[in-house]
Design a protein that fits this description.
There is one protein chain. By secondary structure, this protein is of the alpha+beta class. The chain folds into two domains: 168 residues, Ribosomal Protein S5, domain 2 (2-Layer Sandwich); 131 residues, GHMP kinase, C-terminal domain (Alpha-Beta Plaits, 2-Layer Sandwich), CATH 3.30.70.890. Strands 1, 2, 3, 4, 5, 6 and 11 form a seven-stranded mixed beta sheet that branches. It starts with a strand and ends with a strand. The structure holds adenosine-5'-diphosphate and ligand LJ64HWYM. Pfam families: GHMP_kinases_C, GHMP_kinases_N. Its EC number is 2.7.1.39. It is found in: Cytoplasm. One of its GO terms (cellular component) is cytoplasm.
């Protein structure tokens, strides 16, 4: 029985005002997906996992993309799909997107499809439909490409890798005792259907500032760019500790801070001027004030999805 295994890293999407556009892959966690072909004479998908994720193929973000690829390309096979979760689910770390990305990469390798990175994103987006009901491209784009990415088009998929000319590290406040059923789906329902022009203009200024800050290596532009007047504010009930953690991050000279994806994790970018220990100490105290136990994870920018070489 032939098998292929791929690894995809966690991600923090949105990055302030880049809702459904920007995302950053990081080394905090990773998912691994192994796909084995049992036979090509029948069609079936059996899922195994170390975590409590749906085991129905159309409801699992790793396997729904495979269903769609096989339909689209007329591939007939019975698969055994092992989803080894390293990324905690439902915490704003791109867990569903990473599973989808690793699965599509492993499948592409197994069937010699040589899918382009854009095609990997296109198919992995089906995984986000399984997990949140919406094909948001940002998490999967970061898990596919690595680094910081901007999804400039979804039909067709076009992803731009953002050159990073500022060296930073990553702190993530991960609230491990928080569980929100179908979190991203619920968070997306909280996004307003209409926005004030002034908020739109400010958010456009922020996203411009963030991208220019990354490219030109300007710390103050990155800090300014990690703000959002619309989506984070609408979702604040999901992470009420966020404003104070952001205040603490700036107090101890972080580069900047924003919500990680749809939350409830919080992302802090740091550099040599930052007192990371004080941020971690006072930030976890803030979580506790809201009856939340935050674990502080240190990470760096991660690379893109990879097929694991089997020894
Ligand atoms: N392979 C998978 N990995 C993680 N979550 C999955 C997977 N398949 C389905 N899900 C479901 O998707 C939801 C987690 O995805 P989501 O809400 O987007 O949060 P996040 O991407 O921040 O982990 C959970 O309800 C989980 O049961
Ligand atoms: N743009 C999406 C990103 C969701 O990221 P996740 O890691 O929380 O799944 C959104 O904000 O809905």
């Amino acid at each position: 029985m032939e098998c292929k295994r791929a690894r995809a890293y966690s991600s923090s999407a949105n990055l302030g005002s880049g809702f459904d556009i920007l995302s950053m892959a990081h080394t905090a966690f990773f998912d691994t997906v192994e796909i084995c072909v049992e036979t090509k004479n029948s069609e079936n998908i059996v899922i195994e996992s170390n975590s409590k994720i749906p085991l129905e193929p159309n409801r699992n973000s790793a396997t729904y993309p495979l269903v769609r690829i096989m339909e689209e390309r007329g591939i007939k096979a019975s698969l055994r799909v092992k989803v080894i979760k390293g990324i905690p689910e439902g915490l704003g770390l791109g867990s569903s997107g990473a599973s989808a990305t690793a699965a599509v990469m492993a499948f592409s390798s197994l069937f010699n499809l040589n899918l382009s990175k854009e095609d990997l994103v296109r198919y992995a987006m089906y995984g986000e439909i399984a997990s949140s009901g919406s094909p948001h491209p940002d998490n999967v784009a970061a898990s596919v490409f690595g680094g910081v990415v901007s999804v400039v088009s979804v039909n067709p998929v076009k992803v731009v890798e953002i050159p990073l000319n500022y060296s930073f590290n990553i702190l993530l406040f991960v609230p491990l005792n928080v569980h929100i059923e179908e979190k991203t789906k619920k968070a997306r329902e909280m996004v307003p259907k209409t926005v004030k022009l002034s908020d739109y203009i400010n958010n456009s200024r922020y996203i411009s500032s963030l991208l220019i800050g990354f490219v030109k290596g300007e710390r103050d532009l990155i800090r300014l760019g990690l703000n959002d007047e619309i989506v984070e504010k609408a979702r604040l009930p999901l992470f009420p500790y966020y404003p104070k953690i952001k205040e603490i991050a700036i107090k101890y000279d972080a580069v900047g801070s924003c919500v990680s994806g749809a939350g409830p994790s919080i992302l802090v970018l740091t550099d040599k001027m930052t007192d990371e220990n004080k941020i971690a100490e006072e930030g976890t105290k803030t979580c506790n004030e809201f009856n939340v136990e935050c674990e502080v994870i240190k990470a760096k920018i991660a690379g893109g999805v990879e097929v694991e070489r089997r020894n």
